[in-house]
Each structure stands twice: as structure tokens, then as C-alpha cells.
């Protein structure tokens, strides 16, 4: 993962990405311009990708398997959706991450 010039990491958190067969554990790094996800080496499925903040159309709270309230849905301009599990349900991390990204979206 290579940051663009002047980019600084604001959040560096553990997150799980909902994949086709499993949740993929990894790290989510949030800068003022991008979201970077890099999976752990122990996963069966591996993925590394970047989401541009300016390409995010919508970000909402979500539940894991319809029960656990600690997921985030991110919908992009091209209607691709990502679901991340962030923090434990009783922490406030998910809300802080959503609010931070929403603030970046309006800049």
C-alpha cells in the first residue's frame, strides 16, 4: 500500500470485509483521500484495494447476519457495495468511523 503525496493515515483499524464465502480479516486504513483495505495473510481469500473517498455515494450502519450491530455498508458511485465489520458491538468505533468518513465526503 502506497499513499499518495501528502496523504496521512487518520485511522488504522482491524476490520473484516464480507467476501463471497467468508469474512476476510484485515486492516482498514483511512486517510483524508482514500480507504485502504489489506487482508491478513492467514485468510483463504486475499484482497487489497483502495476506495477513493470521492467515489463513496453512501455510508450506513449495518448488521452482521442481521443481528450484530457493528457493520458498515459503503456504496460507491458505480453501485458496488462493500460491507465491513468494525469493532465490537458495544463499542462506539463504528459510529466514529462513519462520522469521520461522512465528514471527508463533504469536503
Structure write-up:
It is a single chain. This protein is mainly β. The chain has one helix and seven strands, in the order βββββββα. It has a seven-stranded antiparallel β-sheet, with helices on one face. The longest helix has 13 residues, at 93-105.
Please sum up the structure shown.
The chain is mainly beta.
Task: Map the helices and strands.
Elements: E1 9-18, E2 23-31, E3 34-39, E4 48-52, E5 56-64, E6 68-76, E7 81-86, H1 93-105
The major β-sheet equals:
7 strands, antiparallel
Unreliable residue stretches: none
What is the count of helical runs?
1
First and last CA, distance: 24 Å
Mean pLDDT: 92
Large-scale geometry: globular
Compressed to H and E, one letter per element, the order equals EEEEEEEH
Number of strands: 7
Instruction: Give the radius of gyration.
Output: 13 Å
* Residues in helix, %: 10-25%
**Order of strands, widest sheet:** 4-3-2-1-7-6-5
Into which percentage range does the β-strand content fall? over 45%
Q: Give me the secondary-structure category.
A: mainly beta
Question: Which key phrases capture this entry?
Answer:
single chain, 107 residues, mainly beta, 7-stranded antiparallel sheet, 1 helix, globular
Amino acid at each position: 500500500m502506497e499513499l499518495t503525496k501528502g496523504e496521512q493515515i487518520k485511522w488504522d483499524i482491524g476490520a473484516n470485509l464480507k467476501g463471497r464465502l467468508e469474512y476476510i480479516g484485515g486492516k482498514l486504513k483511512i486517510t483524508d483521500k482514500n480507504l485502504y483495505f489489506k487482508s491478513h495473510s492467514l485468510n483463504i481469500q486475499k484482497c487489497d484495494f483502495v476506495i477513493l473517498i470521492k467515489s463513496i455515494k453512501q455510508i450506513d450502519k449495518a448488521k452482521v447476519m442481521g443481528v450484530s450491530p457493528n457493520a458498515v455498508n459503503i456504496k460507491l458511485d458505480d453501485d458496488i457495495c462493500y460491507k465491513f465489520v468494525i469493532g465490537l458491538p458495544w463499542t462506539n468505533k463504528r459510529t466514529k468511523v462513519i462520522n469521520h468518513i461522512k465528514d471527508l465526503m463533504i469536503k
